[in-house]
Every structure is written in structure tokens, then in C-alpha cells.
Amino acid sequence: MWKFLESEMQVIIGLVENATRTDAEIADIFNLKKGTVASIRRRLLDAGAITYANVPAFSKLGCEILGFHIGTTEPSERADTRVNHYIEFASKSPQIYHGMIGGTSVVLYTALKNATEFDGFTQSHNSFFTGSRRSSKAKMTSAFFPYALSKCTQVPNFASIVHDHFKLDVPAPKSVPPTSAEIESPNLSETERMTLVALVEHPRFSDREISAKVGLSRQAVTRIRNKLAENGVLTTVCIPRLYKWGFEIGAVAHPKFNMEIPWEKRLKTQPAECLDLSFLTLSKADEAAANYILARYSEYAEKLESVLAWYHKVKAFDEKPEITLFPLDRCTELRSFDYGPAVRHLLLA
Q: What is the structure's pLDDT at 299?
């Protein structure tokens, strides 16, 4: 397990809670020196302990549906062959913004324009895994979460996971429950579209570097960046690379719910850790997808037991929940909060 100094943990917490905080703001919160924070930030980024993502609000870009796809493959195929086939499939599928493969399990998250594209994506998966690739194909279960009927984690949120892991004597982060979002057609000029794509594809680029990419002045890029942020189209987040820290287990839960319990009541009364410790949640009245990452398998077993007890007590499940485990030391990222291909597909295709 990666060992962090207390000052490093403080900087990580400060950034994961709010990636737009300046070095001076973090220094003020934790009583550090501004230069110390700047040095730690650079060191963490260079070591790959953290990274940044510019997260688009897909609902504001004309996207109607978020897709969830999970499945298992036959163990007969060589693992490296199976992984290479899914890497190739992901490279040909711009709708995927997050996904991984580990052992015989695969999970994918997609941003889709409409139901037609959702069906087209599942067909493209089936078509790709034919012939010599057939033995690598996962038997997929796909669910779609229309913005009009769903509540979702609008940006990945690792604050509670990091706070729970570090156990520092600092205030716990505010709970950020999944929220609904209205679908909007993108009202962006051509230069704004190109700049948005560049910002999403290069989250660590300065405005000067983005300006060289899109052929605009630095001032124009800054104006567009600020406009996108103010309008909620783009949010910068800090992603902790937990598998590099030594976290062992990823867990993806796909429960189906008893519709006799009102959706809002379930969300408000379920154990707080169900939502707080899921870094990406898709939820609707009859089902959900939640994602957890844990330092130890023993931690998973302990927390699962306490969480499931509440659901069983109130008879929330319509059927036994499906929980898929991913041993992180044997996983390959197909995309990790890489929104560039999806945004390019939505705006420029």
C-alpha cells in the first residue's frame, strides 16, 4: 500500500473535494505553506497518484441516455487475447467513457445520443465479437438510464472514499447524492465545440497549450473555458489512482429493486455509505448501478454485510443483487474517465 505523508494526504483530500482549489486555498485550509502545496501537487501528478479529468455534462450536449454494460467471458480464451480484443473494441467505440476488464469480467459505461444508439452499441458489440474473436465475447447484461427517468452521479466523486481511507482528523466531505438532469441541445459555436473537445481530451493542458491546439488566442480559450464552467457544461475533477495506491478490489453492484418501495424513499433512507462510497452511481426506480473500490477484500466483506442487512430488512430487492468483483492487480483499464472520444462523437461526428 502506498504510504503518504500527512501533508500529502491533506493536499489529496483538498483536491479530490474540489479540483479547482488553488495552492493558496489548500494551504489555508490545512495550515500549510503555498510552496509546499505546489510541490506536493506536482509530485503527486508526476508519480501518477492523482490525475485530472474535465468532465462534460452529457445531458447538456444532447445525450439522452447513459448506458451500463456488464458481463462475463468464457475462461477458455487466453486472458491476454481477451484483453486485447476488448481494448480493440473500446478503441472503435467512442461512446465508452469508462470501463475495465479483469479476469473473466467486463464492465463498460457509455454516453448515448438516444435509444437507437443504445441498441446500435449492443449490436456493434455482438458484431465485433464474431469469427476469431467469438471466444473472447462477454455475455453482456445492458441497462440504460435515460436522463428523463434517472438520477446519476454527474461527476465521479472519490471524496468519501479517500476521506474514509486516510482517517485524518478533518471534516467529512459533504454527501453528494445522485441528481436528475434535463436534456438540452448544445447551443455552442463551432469554436466553442472545438475548444470543449480539446479541453476534455487534454485536461492538464494550460489555456496557452489549448490555444495552440485549436488556433485561438489564449484569452479566447480562457473565456470559453470560464463560460463552459459557469454554464455547468464542464467540471474539473481530481481522480485518485487508487489501484496505484495498492487498493485491491473493485466492486460493481447491479441491484433490481422492489417497486413497492417508492424510489425517493429508498434513496433518502438507505445507508449513507451506499451512495457516499460509490464513486459512480446510476439510479432509477427499478434498478441501479453502483461502483466501489476498496483497499482490502476484508473491508469489502465487512461493509457489504452491513449494507445488505438494511436492504433485506426493508425488502428493497426484487431479486438477489448482482455484485461483480474486479481484482485490481489483474485489471486492465479500457477507458478511465476518458470523455474525449464521447464528446468528439457527440459534437463533431
A: 85
The pLDDT of 45-68, averaged and rounded, is 97
Q: Are residues 155 and 82 in the same domain?
A: yes
* Residue 155 to residue 217: CA distance in whole angstroms: 29
Residues 38 and 138 in one domain: no
Share of the chain above pLDDT 90, in %: 85
Residue-wise DSSP of 41-88: HHHHHHHTSEEEEEEE-GGGGT--EEEEEEEEE-TTS-HHHHHHHHHH
**What average pLDDT score do residues 262-269 get?**
88
pTM more than 0.90? yes
The verdict on 112 and 24 lying in the same domain is no
CA–CA distances in Å: residue 77 to residues 53, 73, 131: 34, 8, 13
Domain containing 294: what range? 54-234+245-349
Indicate if 215 and 98 belong to the same structural domain: yes
What is the per-residue pLDDT across 109-150, written as a single tens digit (0 to 9) for each? 999 999 999 999 999 999 999 999 999 999 999 999 999 999
Sign of CA dihedral 310, 313, 314, 316: positive
3-class secondary-structure state, position 2: coil
- Could you read off the pLDDT of 280-299 as tens digits, one per residue? 999 999 999 999 999 998 88
The reply to whether 272 falls in a domain is yes
The domain total for the chain is 2
136 lies in the same domain as 276: yes
Residue 62 clears pLDDT 90, i.e. is over it: yes
Kindly state whether residues 39 and 158 are assigned to the same domain. no
Listing DSSP states for 169-202 in one string gives SSPPPPP---B----------HHHHHHHHHHHH-
